[in-house]
Design brief:
Chain lengths: 277, 238, 222
């Protein structure tokens, strides 16, 4: 359904991406600054890659060699950003109906009514976006994106601005909707639990490159996240090892600390460990 | 630092602590330097439309004598107590002429102005402030064409501005003094306003303060030597 | 209409027409400068600011030199279309439009910049064309800044003097806008007449400034 292989240079940042998705949810996973949001922007047509191809549903939306670059409005992709997702000058129902043709653009349209109900927003139809919680806002954003019947959803860290409590609820709602409609989606996240719960496929991003792809379980799995890099200092205190890399500090089980011959230190840490960057 | 302050003060005083200032109508801008040279003593001259200068005098500007292009502003100053009545005298006369830009219609006459195509304009001085403008209005009123020309007349702030409009070709015709048009290559004088009853422009001067040098200057202008200089610039006798 | 009310009516008409002419390009420019990065962007920025920063006499001189009867463009206009602009009400409109433009652009541009770009991204993903995006997303999100800009532009157009005097001239009954009339009245010593128009312009300007600052409070004052 989605095939993307492109390169993009934005300022000093070089992005090189290979993605593939047949059905389900493709998670773009990695630390912030790795290029995941930029990738989604490119898929949406909001930025133009320097070379490569993007094909969605068999339609080439971008092809540098044939100078194809379909504008965003014709790509039929749904887009949900992390912040500022709703139009503040419209109420909930009007937001949901925003992308519909003029004659259907009102709260009584059957599709709008159905979506509001499905996302449990009916009681908020007349509310202003400013009065909604983070979770409610993103549900409206999902409804609005679904209203125009996109063939692919692009979700850029949609849960990040929702408080921890509401996050799980919205995730379940999204999972259900995606399954019901069989709409494929690309989901950006740096939360491993989220990736495991929602993702069917996972692409691992590191410093502007897709370095691995597979299932979330395979890559994140029950086991480890491999963090490697230039070591600035390390300390072992009993069974706990703390390694300070360039720009990151990782704490994990001392037994998983490895040196290799090239002088690079690897530490395997379980997924639930936090890596600060 | 103190030297700088002194310099500034000197410059601010305008060339010397006691050089008198004469306010002259713009129409005299060409002849005044020659008159001052002929007079032989230091004098500061400031130019403007006679009405504008009159206002400045009334506003308290440090002016010692005035030489205007009409008797009205001088008499106004006398009436308001600013000018000395005993020093008032006519210093010269002038001719009001109709000019056209080069390449314009040389057969145009004062009486033919209403016949100008609608898009064409006539420039005269602002009658309330510029004597040349008032003379022009008088002339046109005398010919009965003032009303007909109403929204085709452009007012200039002084007679030099009126001349400039004509030189730039922005208007079809303009009313200035013969002395303004003399020697200007890009305008053509087509008619002098000399019919019976036409306004007779005059240059009138008066003293404002009792500065002796300023009064002596007025005497010089009225003297045969001064009159000769005026005549050489195209002015008529007093 | 008598000669006393004429300058008031003329001024309002000139300012309104100027606004109508200059608003669309000004808004388009504000949007381009806010949203697009392109090579000549800073140059365009400076060019737009010029009529605001230059003395009115420079603007007036420029207009006369370019659009006057013997000017670069004026000559073409005259010989090809018989169109003469100097000393016409149209000249007053042109002068007013020129000085209102930078004010509108500089007020609206930050208002558009303040609209989160995500809103436009979402709009595009929902299928909106660039014009629809502008009308349905950018304008509703920044309408206060837009109205403030237009209101300030109107006030500036209303008060235009220097360039208007040079380009449109002072023709009673045709081009004597209120600012010109005030100056003319002052020159002939008719203070009462001058005061009348001073009062009218002051009242309108105060109303405009109050309206603009309520619509578009400066950052920090919110």
């Amino acid at each position: 359904m989605l095939e993307a292989d492109f390169r993009l240079t934005a300022g000093a940042f070089d992005l090189s991406v290979q993605l593939q998705l047949d059905r389900g949810v493709l998670v773009l996973f990695g630390p912030s600054g790795a290029g995941k949001s930029l990738t989604v922007s490119a898929l949406a047509g909001l930025v133009t890659p320097t070379e490569g191809r993007i094909v969605i549903g068999g339609d080439p939306l971008f092809d540098a060699s044939q100078t194809i670059d379909v504008p965003t409005r014709k790509r039929r992709v749904g887009y949900v950003p992390q912040h500022h997702s709703l139009f503040p000058f419209r109420d909930v129902a009007e937001n949901v109906a925003f992308g519909l043709p003029k004659e259907r653009r009102h709260r009584e349209d059957p599709l709008v009514v159905a979506l509001l109900e499905e996302l449990e927003l009916t009681h908020l139809a007349d509310s202003a976006p400013a009065s909604l919680s983070g979770g409610e806002r993103q549900r409206v954003a999902f409804a609005r994106a679904l209203a125009v019947e996109p063939r692919l959803l692009l979700l850029d860290e949609p849960f990040a601005s929702i408080d921890r409590a509401g996050r799980q609820r919205v995730r379940s709602v999204l999972a259900r909707i995606l399954a019901d409609r069989a709409i494929p989606a690309v989901l950006v996240t740096h939360d491993p639990a989220e990736a495991l719960e929602l993702g069917t496929q996972l692409a691992l991003f590191e410093r502007g490159r897709t370095v691995a792809s597979g299932t979330p379980r395979d890559l994140l799995g029950a086991a480890e996240l491999v963090v490697e890099g230039v070591v600035k200092s390390r300390a072992v205190d009993g069974s706990v090892a703390t390694v300070t890399l360039e720009g990151a500090t990782v704490t994990g089980a001392a037994s998983l600390l490895e040196d290799d011959d090239a002088g690079v230190v690897r530490i395997r840490v379980p997924v639930s460990t936090t890596a600060d960057r | 630092m103190r030297l700088l302050l002194l310099l500034v003060l000197l410059v601010g005083c305008g060339g010397g602590p006691s050089a008198p200032t004469v306010a002259a109508a713009t129409s005299l801008r060409n002849v005044m330097p020659a008159l001052v040279t002929g007079f032989g003593q230091d004098l500061t001259v400031t130019y403007g439309a006679s009405g504008t200068l009159r206002q400045q005098v009334e506003g308290g500007a440090p002016i010692d004598a005035v030489v205007f292009a009409s008797s009205m502003p001088v008499d106004d100053l006398i009436a308001s107590g600013h000018a000395v009545a005993a020093t008032r005298r006519r210093l010269a006369t002038n001719d009001l002429v109709l000019i056209v830009p080069e390449g314009g219609d040389a057969s145009l006459r004062w009486s033919g102005l209403p016949g100008l195509p609608v898009k064409e304009k006539l420039a005269i001085g602002e009658p309330g402030a510029v004597p040349a403008g008032r003379y022009a209005r008088e002339a046109l009123q005398g010919l009965g064409s003032w009303d007909a020309l109403q929204d085709r007349i452009v007012f200039g702030g002084d007679v030099a501005a009126v001349l400039a409009y004509a030189r730039r070709g922005e208007v079809a015709a303009a009313a200035v003094y013969a002395t303004d048009a003399a020697g200007i290559p890009d305008v053509t004088v087509v008619e002098v306003a000399a019919w019976p009853g036409a306004p007779r422009p005059e240059v009138v001067g008066a003293a404002i303060t009792d500065d002796a040098r300023a009064r002596a200057f007025l005497d010089f202008v009225a003297s045969p030597a001064g009159q000769k200089i005026l005549a050489s610039f195209g002015f008529g006798p007093a | 209409m008598d000669s006393t009310t004429f300058p008031i009516v003329l001024s309002m008409q000139v300012a309104a027409i100027s606004l109508a002419i200059v608003a669309p390009p000004a808004l388009a420019l504000a949007w381009i400068q806010a949203r697009r990065r392109y090579r000549l962007r800073t140059a365009v920025d400076a060019l737009v600011l010029l009529p605001l920063v230059l003395p009115p006499s420079v603007v007036g001189f420029f207009l006369v030199v370019v659009l006057g009867r013997r000017g670069i463009l004026g000559e073409v206009l005259d010989s090809a279309f018989g169109l003469r602009l100097v000393f016409t009400p149209a000249a007053a409109v042109i002068a007013s439009s020129l000085v209102a433009l930078p004010l509108i652009v500089k007020t609206v541009q930050p208002a558009i910049e303040a609209v989160p770009v995500e809103l436009e991204h979402v709009g595009r993903s929902l299928g909106l064309s660039p014009l629809q995006l502008f009308l349905r997303v950018t304008v509703p999100a920044s309408w206060r800044g837009i109205v403030a800009g237009l209101v300030l532009g109107f006030a500036r157009a209303l008060g235009e003097f220097g360039a208007t005097l040079m380009f449109a001239g002072n023709i009673p009954g045709r081009t004597n806008t209120m600012p010109l009339e005030i100056f003319a009245a002052y020159q002939v010593g008719d203070d009462r007449r001058a005061l009348l128009y001073v009062a009218v312009l002051t009242v309108i300007s105060v109303a405009v400034v109050v309206a603009a600052s309520r619509l578009n409070p400066q950052p920090g004052g919110r």
